[in-house]
């Protein structure tokens, strides 16, 4: 399966901006289920500085600087990604979640990479309410896969997908109290639950293909960025779960990158030299080629 992805972010400033520094993390990375055949960035106005590097987690980051006055900034990243059938098998490792927790907490030199994803961040730090919520899925002796699958199902059932209710700064305590949020909130909540149990979890950023209703043509730009989480299970590696849609991601999911939380893989961030406000528009298009 081959996908074409176009992601455009447009900032409209109320006053002229003379300088801006930005980092874009919108280029899909290669994984065992996808190959990024190409990825190109188009910036208007043209930047005076344009550099790329690979961050700590292996994600591609593009740094650019615009040093001319402008009242609009447009950033478009177009990518071509080949999806490979996932090597997922029915041979699910039945290792208990306690056994995996103990492996991750051991003082051996094993699982160094995986251990770093047990550390909490400001947004994923478990509260008492989150710890209690997590414990309901992690019965004694339960396999890690089944426990996480149950957690995914419960978040999908217990929480309402409500666009606009939260922002990137909304704490999980509010999400827990109101039982509302969006995909990044549900991914953060699941990660927080896993941290509460002493387990490793990644925040995954990417896209999901959406299909038009039968008999209708899909509109351009109506897709969106998506987020889910991934859990380390010995002998299976990192296994993805999507609590927003209550499913294990398949070939309709395109991974851009991952980190400990949203702030490790922000699609586009930066600073501007201006005191005025601005508006932002995002258009995403994911299509089969």
Task: Put the structure in a nutshell.
20% of the residues lie in helices and 37% in strands. The chain contains six helices and 14 strands. The chain has helices at residues 97-105, 112-115, 128-135, 144-158, 172-178, 183-196; strands at residues 2-17, 20-24, 34-44, 49-54, 60-66, 70-83, 160-161, 180-181, 201-208, 225-233, 237-241, 253-259, 268-272, 278-288.
Produce the secondary structure layout.
Blueprint: E1 2-17, E2 20-24, E3 34-44, E4 49-54, E5 60-66, E6 70-83, H1 97-105, H2 112-115, H3 128-135, H4 144-158, E7 160-161, H5 172-178, E8 180-181, H6 183-196, E9 201-208, E10 225-233, E11 237-241, E12 253-259, E13 268-272, E14 278-288
Parallel strand pairs: 7-8
Antiparallel strand pairs: 1-6, 1-14, 2-5, 2-13, 3-6, 4-5, 9-10, 9-12, 10-11
Helix pairs in contact: 3-6, 4-6
Describe the 3D structure.
By secondary structure, the chain is of the alpha+beta class. It has two domains: 2-84 and 266-288, Immunoglobulin-like (Sandwich), CATH 2.60.40; 97-249, C8orf32 fold (Roll). It is 20% helix and 37% strand. The protein has six helices and 14 strands. It has helices spanning 97-105, 112-115, 128-135, 144-158, 172-178, 183-196; strands spanning 2-17, 20-24, 34-44, 49-54, 60-66, 70-83, 160-161, 180-181, 201-208, 225-233, 237-241, 253-259, 268-272, 278-288. The strands form four sheets. Strands 3-6-1-14 form a four-stranded antiparallel β-sheet, with no helix packed on it. A hairpin with a 5-residue loop joins β4 and β5. The N and C termini lie close together (8 Å). The mean pLDDT is 93.
